[in-house]
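ok trying again, last paste got cut off:
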Amino acid sequence: MIDYALPSGHTMKRRDLEPLILDTSLQLFREKGYDNVSVREICEACDITKPTFYKYAVTKGDLLELFFYRIAGNTDDTWDDPQIQGSWWNCLKHGFCGFLTSFLSFGTDFCMQLFIQNVLSEQDRFRVDPDFRSRMAAVIRKAQASGEILDDTEPEQLYDVIMSTLIGFCAWWILNEGSVDVMDEFLDSLQALCEVPA
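nice, full thing came through this time. structure:
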């Protein structure tokens, strides 16, 4: 279990609780499986009360949404720098592949629960940090302007299509219990969607 012992005299601020709750619950989900972890167990492991937990999430399903939202923040900060990546097209690949890698790192059980909760809640739990979306749209726009990708769809729309494709590959990976290599398949689809010149 994750140890969040605080130095003597230090009090945890409210903003520090969200990462604690998310990291601790993820650790518990990985150890015991999503269905085998209760909100009470998460609260005990975090040394918080249920009312405190409910300030951040109403259900365990809400935690899944927060995890998905956070995935974009797990990509490295240089993904959209063409000086480092070599081109706008490489920036696009690096950003989406970093996102996909982060998603897959949660494992099939956890990711399957995200899909299940998405269906059961009749809500879109696949929302991503708006900063990632806007940065990605800017990269798409620059890749279009430089001729590195030929698809002329509005960048925000192209981003949505690519993200939907990525989520589809995640579902395929889950249905195959993680036994398929989705990265190469996704990259081929990304190249086709963006109409990258040969």
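cool. The CA atoms of residues 153 and 194 lie 9 Å apart. The first helix runs from residue 14 to 32.
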